[in-house]
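Input record (one chain):
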Amino acid sequence: MAHLFTRNLTFQSNDLGKEATLMLTFDAQMDGLYEEFLPVVWKVSKFGKSGPYRANATYTSQLAFSKPQVVDGNIIDAETCVKVNVGEKTTLTEANEVYHFSSPIKGASNALQAVNNTGAIQDIAVGFMTKGDLMPKPALYFTDVGDGSHVTARFTPILRAYITSDYQETAIIRGAIDTPAVWMEDLASLPQSTTWNLTRDPASGRYKMHPA
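The corresponding structure, as predicted from the sequence alone:
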């Protein structure tokens, strides 16, 4: 059984100087990114121009495959899901318009795998479970998975933060974000709870994130 962990992230600002929107997503460089699969927006938080602001995000390392429901480029929900750990494989089937993931079995090491045995092309998402939620938060979206083929996800929880108002939560990101990340951390290497200060340089207009 994989060792599961939780990361509580707090992002805060005080008298930022300009209203800003912080967007979090797992879009660190991975083989196949924007070709085989697409990142999904996790969190979007607004920080005001003056006064104190704070946003919280909690990540848990229990991963899961899901059959996503997509509307207008956003993953609004999932029809079903299955918890998986690294080194495990599951199979997606369909009967009477009901989708089902099989109980995971041993698969390729250092990866998660899902096989499409539904008889049709499907979309499959990789995400993580959140306490109290029945379905996982989507992180990566695999589209046009052919019948009989499989998706292989080598997911590392490297989270990036951007200052951009171009996206909303659960949006599928179709191409590389055109603004540089202001923060990037491998969540596995962080303590359980961390706080980060968002600041803006009034001279350059650049945003930075640093430990509180």
